[in-house]
Amino acid sequence: MKTKLKRLPAIPLLAGVLILLHYILINAVAPPVNSSWGIRYSGYWLLVIASSIGTNLLALYLGYTACLTKKPWQRLGKIAFYLVMTSLIGVIWGLIFYKAFDVQDLWIGLFPISYNNFPFATSILIWYVGGPFIARYIANFSQEIQQAMAFILSWLVLLMPFIFAKPLWGMTDGNSFIWVGTLFVFGILIAQGSFSWLNYYKKTFFVAIIGFILVVTTAKLMPITQSPSSLFGRFYSSQLLNVGLISLAVFGLLNKFFTTHFTWLTRSIWPNWFALCAYFVSCLPIITNRLANDLHINDGMSTVEWLALIVMYTAIMLVAVGLLTLVLNWFTRIKSVHYLIVKFTLNNFTDLIGAPKFAKRMLRENWHILVVVMCGFIFTVTQMSVTFLTTTGFSWKLLYDILTVTRNRLILNVIIFVCCFLLLFSLINRFWPALVFTSGISIFIGVAEYLKISLRDEPILPVDLSMVTAFGEIAKMLSPIIIVAAVVLLIILITASLILQHHLGGIYPHDMWKRRLITFLAMLLFFSGSFFVNHENSLPYIIFRSFNIDPLFYDQSTGARMNGPIVQFINNLDVKIMDEPAGYSKAKIKSIMTKYNRQAKQINQTRHNELQNQTIVFVLSESFSDPNRVPKMKVTPNPIPYLTKLKQTTDSGLMLSSGYGGGTANMEWQSLTGLSISNLSPTLPTPYTQLVPKQKIVPAFTNLFDSKIAIHPYNASLYNRKQVFKAFGFQQFYYQGSNDQLSYEQKLADSSYISDDSAYKQTMKVIKRTQSGSRFIQLSTMQNHMPYTTNYKGKKFRIMGSAFDETNRDSVETYVQGLSYTDKALKQFIAEIDKVDKPVTVVWYGDHLAGLYKSSLMDKYPIQLHQTDYFIYNNQTHQLSYTDRLVSPYAFPALALANGNVKVTPYYALLTQVTDKLPAMTTDPAASETNNTNGANIFVNQKGRQLKYRNLSSQQKKIFRDYQLIQYDLTAGQQYAARWAQQKLK
């Protein structure tokens, strides 16, 4: 019997509620463990399966009302608007509450079908648009044929896959096109009078109850161990017989009930849009990830609390989606928004035939911006390609990697290109000159980037702009061919822009000055964000991270290759070196210099040695730290017995590292300059690449010596070491590939790194070299660098404790074995030092802990996980003043001079006071898990306890203030004290 059709908005309303409840249950709730027959376990899975019928009900309802829906294609524009706005609001939500989003969250809204993040919507949309035709076609069939159709579909789609629980017809889940279409046709058939049993309360109620009993019984006999998001089984899957019949039964009950009750609801269309928004929200990864991580409901609470949280989450989600629906509905009434929706609306189904003409019209109307985007794409790919060509030849794989691996970063570069064009276009109101000029800049950037990386292994940085004033000197360094080619290209670009503008035009009408002004101001605002990209939690910072931009300050060339030259340049714009201390002035700096001139004389009254004929060696031992000092870990036997013994017979202790798992160059910088990284701005995490190139004068410990040699048994591209060491005054730099060739390059087992034994032998070769005058050697080893995958033979150390994950055990064992090899090499190194008949002082320290331990340890033991070993050894004095002193790397120059009883210059008198009178300074180790960035300055006393500035004595505050003022002057100020800090001992 054919039923009297009515719209029943209560059904899509309930469907929306179930969709949201299901979304909460599978993403925010940890599935309860099946311990006996718990109420929570059974209740959870019953709710999961019951709520999974939400999309089934929606498909049935849309099919049921298909014959009442007139021209559904006219709603496509509005549906698209709801989808895009829901995705955008999701991004805004992530920005406001979590200071983060992923660029995929934008693509999902703009390309929903291609991204396939809304599979149910994609499936139902096709059936929905064709619904009136399908309903009209089926209505022409006799009742007998309709019944046969219902039977055949039920047999093929419901029963056959159920028999062996196999996903027939490609129906792997409830979103498949076949399953959604079957439900849609079922809805049409119900409207035509088929499925007559749905008209009886008792029958539908009986089917629903039996279905749920089967669910509960099966869950008891065969406990569910699957993830709720991918649940599959005869009695569980929303696209198989049991849940399918439950869906039909519930739909029949609701249909029967709301046909005769609450009839006033039939006048509202809001529930339809509510269900749509509910589904869109449930597909947004940005919300899903937060539910699964930040808002997850765990099992360790009472059932009442557990259930209350689920109800609360669902209620909040219902209110939020309800408000979202109302807001979007209000937006559609705004004139400009309504016009936009209408513009993308099909008035008649036959308009699809004119789709090619529509596409041509859109291309014709918007070809200008398409040309700009295409130029931006071509020139960006070219720029990124030429940066790679400095290290490798061209290949199609290189191009493929740029288009895929760096896709998001490529898109950001194109956006910047387009915005640069819009800025120029809005200013000069000439399309072709603006485009050609923007393209010309891109070409010059690509060429300049290639030349600079080839010559100096460094991309174009903001500091290079200061060299524009020295263009004549730069031109002398370039080949005449390059200069001529640049001039010719410039002439071609200017000529081309004038010709194109004359023939093709392309300007704003004169009465569009308001649009030009708005565009100009918007682009200025966009580019002003360049000065905030490194300010944590700022909008530009969040956007850059969402596009997968990694500044790679420690390797600027790789940063230019991976991020693109323009983005890497912008990364280096937002660099504030240091906050200016109150009272900074030339007079103040001079008074400090005078003060420590006197202090140096006072210190030197008790110091009797000069640097002449002395050698000081700084040894940075990669990732070295006593593993037995790691909380909750024990290694037996002691893997570093020699170092343990040596530290008891010479000046030694613990060093506060500002890094964990990385940050080697920062420890080098501090030890070589005597400056603390904790005084620098958070936007300057890597002084080697961001600070040193900007300094006109670079004071360093090397200034005190006649001969300066650096050794790093690896390549020198990381951290800009070649240029930095040149600025520090090193006369020789031994590294792999250098003109100063390494004599020892042996490796242990299958390691990628040169062994410490070879590094020490190379150092001894330099020490034994006959030379008059003072000498300084900087050695940075590589043996114990990550990753810890070397297949060392005969690992003999037993490692116990819970400091690391078991999956990491092999890496920890490899790391500990490497420390043992370092200990043995160190023993031989010190023995060789003792044979030298001239004074040699060795400052030896580990730069940071290996990043092998559980991140949860950082919350409880931040100081301990930033403490490494150090000692200061002199082959003649064998001084022993302390064995447990806690210091920071900036103290090593002062400690080295003190250990050798060497006189100091005024600057090192200041460092001596800072070292002796102040607690050790470092960045806050609890600020992040990795702590590879600088920021908040903290003090740590000799007991390893953190102090604040207010805990310092008045004398300590004065010394700290002097130190801050001098550091600011040397790094960010006028460098009044630069020559003073560089002076040698007289």
Under CATH at level 1, the class of the largest domain stands as: Alpha Beta
Q: What count of domains describes the coordinates?
A: 3
Mean pLDDT: 87
Largest sheet: 8 strands, mixed
The CATH superfamily of the largest domain is identified as Alkaline Phosphatase, subunit A
Helix amount, in percent?
40-55%
CATH topology of the largest domain, anyone?
A: Alkaline Phosphatase, subunit A
How many E strands? 13
Structural class given helices, strands, pairing? alpha/beta
Overall body shape: elongated
Give the topology, please:
Layout: H1 10-27, H2 39-51, H3 54-64, H4 76-98, H5 104-110, H6 112-115, H7 119-139, H8 143-164, H9 177-191, H10 201-221, H11 241-260, H12 270-282, H13 285-293, H14 303-331, H15 335-343, H16 355-388, H17 396-404, H18 407-428, H19 431-456, H20 471-477, H21 480-504, H22 513-528, H23 539-546, H24 556-563, H25 565-571, H26 586-604, E1 615-621, E2 633-636, H27 641-646, E3 651-656, H28 664-673, H29 687-690, E4 707-712, H30 721-727, E5 732-735, H31 756-767, E6 775-780, E7 798-801, H32 809-834, E8 840-846, H33 856-860, E9 867-874, E10 885-887, H34 892-899, H35 906-917, E11 920-923, E12 937-940, E13 946-947, H36 954-971, H37 978-982
Parallel strand pairs: 1-6, 1-8, 3-10, 4-5, 4-6
Antiparallel strand pairs: 2-7, 3-9, 8-9, 11-12, 12-13
Please characterize this protein's 3D structure.
The chain starts with 9 loop residues before the first helix and ends with a helix. It is elongated. Helix 10 (201-221) runs antiparallel to helix 11 (241-260). A hairpin with a 5-residue loop joins strand 12 and strand 13 (946-947). Helices cover 54% and strands 7% of the residues. The model has no long low-confidence stretch (mean pLDDT 87). The chain is an alpha/beta fold. The strands form 3 sheets. It has an 8-stranded mixed β-sheet with strand order 5-4-6-1-8-9-3-10, sandwiched between helices. Strands 11-12-13 form a 3-stranded antiparallel β-sheet, with no helix packed on it. It contains 37 helices and 13 strands. The chain folds into 3 domains: 10-347, no CATH class; 356-571, no CATH class; 586-982, Alkaline Phosphatase, subunit A. Keywords: Cell membrane, Membrane, Transmembrane, Transmembrane helix. Its main location: membrane. It holds the Pfam family Sulfatase.
